[in-house]
Each structure stands twice: as C-alpha cells, then as structure tokens.
Amino acid sequence: MRIPFRKMHGLGNDFVVIDARERAVEMSARRAAALADRHTGIGCDQLILLEPSETADVRMRIFNPDGGEVEACGNASRAVGLYLGGDKRIETLGGIIAASTSDTGISVAMGRPRFGWDEIPLAYPMDTLTMPVGWEDLVEPVAVNVGNPHVIFFVPDTHSVDLARLGPLIENDPLFPRRINVNVATLTGPDALDLRVWERAAGLTRACGTGACASAIAAMRRKLTGRRVTVTLPGGPLVIEWTDADEIIMTGPATTSFEGSFGTSDYPA
Ligand SMILES: N[C@H](CCC[C@H](N)C(=O)O)C(=O)O
After folding, report:
1. Which residue minimizes the CA distance to atom 12 of ligand 1?
2. 11 lies in a domain?
3. What is the model's pTM?
4. Ligand 1 atom 13: the closest Cα is on which residue?
5. Is ligand 1 within 6 A of the CB of residue 45?
6. Fewer CB atoms inside 10 A, N or C side of the chain?
C-alpha cells in the first residue's frame, strides 16, 4: 500500500507531513525514524502525522528523527496552517494552538510560556531566569517551556559558538530529564535577535520555531527587548509577540516543496 505525503518547510526547517485523517497510518518510532533519515529515507527534521481530533480541527503528532514523539513544533504548526488553510485549531501534546493564514504569512498562537523549574522540566529546583550553571563559555542561561523545553544562552556572537560540539553535551545533561533544545542568541537591535539552535534529537537546523519563541520570551523576561521581537535564524526571520493575554504569537512563512508517496512495505511500522 502507498501512503501520500507532502514535503513542507518553514525557513528551511523541513517536514514530511502525512494526512491520516481519512485513513489511519500506524506510526512507530522505527517507521518515523526511517522516513526522516536523509540517507535511506525521505529525509526531514521532523515527521508530522495529522489525525482526527476530539478537541480541535486536527491532531498534529510530531516525531523527531530519533523516532521520539514530542510536544511542539513551531515551524510545522505554520506548515500545517498553510496546508489546512483559514483559521484552524491544532491539538498537540503541548496543548491546543491556533493557526491563521493571512497575506503577511501564517500566524500561530503557541499558548503561554512556562517558567517553573518543574515545568521546563529541570531535575531539581533552580532560578530559571538566570540559571547558576554553565558549559565552558555558555553560562547563566534562561529556561523556558513553550510546549517543548528550551534553554537559551545570550552570547556576543552566535557564530562564534561551537554549537555542534556543545549542543549535544547540554541537550543530554542530567539537569534536563526530558533533554532540551539548546539556543544561542545575540541581541542585534532594540527588538532583534540573531539565533542558532541545536534541536533536541534533531541537531542543528536551519530554523526552530519554538526556539525563536523561547528565545524571544527569554529576552523579554530579561528586559533586553520589547514584547514584539524579530528573530533571525539561518533560514530567515520570524516575528514573535508576547501579548498582554500571556499568549505567544509567532508569524512567518511556510512552504510546500512537493508531494509524494511511500510504500508501507518499504517502511515497516
Ligand atoms: N526538536 C524539537 C521539536 C521540533 C522543534 C522545531 N522544529 C520547531 O520548529 O519548533 C523538540 O524536540 O522539542
């Protein structure tokens, strides 16, 4: 049997999107990892499975390239918003998010940020606004949960950080019981950040929507910016707003690259 999919991306952070609302598709960690593999599979940063939802217009399941299912994916939320069109509520493990499509791009309301050490989560109590920890030159980060967990280091120059080496060290530190997405951010203007991200289980990506949300919120909490920030990633810019209603709104592009299909026998569940 062949399963159709849509290859999509948000600023180069790419996804294989499978719409299983009409016909169920079994998604094991093995199948998700095989599909995401860039050498032997279709290749993507995350695999996205759309299923019927009891509480929203659609349920969006998010699988990292290691096959692990996770709570949130900002760029994929915009991609699914583009695919579905109009205003849609999307159920995720991290909560219900709302996507709306306009001529300035796709906006996604990502819910409210969480700052409690046990909400990140961390392994033990700690101030999450200036954490008393460090890994070589990366010290005193901020931790934020925006559906998924993020740690944010403010540095003089994101490009001088050896993120390929330090990212996995921090991602897998026992301080983070569910591992963590690692962000290095530089303030480049009154309301502007430069950002690079080592994604939990995915590594260096061209863009990370939840990383942009978490880093913007971290800058706002530290009073480095106002409540509307442009975050520039290697793949391009995203605009993040933290509303007075404690909602994170992310606006940016999404693109459909191509449509295809795969054989279930080639990718056993
Ligand atoms: N690797 C992330 C999931 C995808 C996040 C990123 N692709 C985004 O756009 O938010 C995690 O394990 O939490």
Report:
1. 200
2. yes
3. 0.98
4. 148
5. yes
6. N
Query: Same domain for 232 and 146?
Result: yes
Asked casually if ipTM beats, i.e. exceeds, 0.90, the reply is yes
Instruction: Count up the domains in the chain and report the number.
Output: 2
Tokens encoding 54: 């009891």
44 is known as an active-site residue? no
In this structure, the residue with its CA closest to atom 11 of ligand 1 is 200
- Tens of pLDDT, residue by residue over 214-256, are 999 999 999 999 999 999 999 999 999 999 999 999 999 999 9
- 77 ligand 1 Cβ < 6 A: no
User: What does the alpha-carbon distance between residue 44 and residue 38 come to, in Å, rounded to a whole number?
Assistant: 7
Which residue among 184, 208, 219, 220 is the active-site one?
208
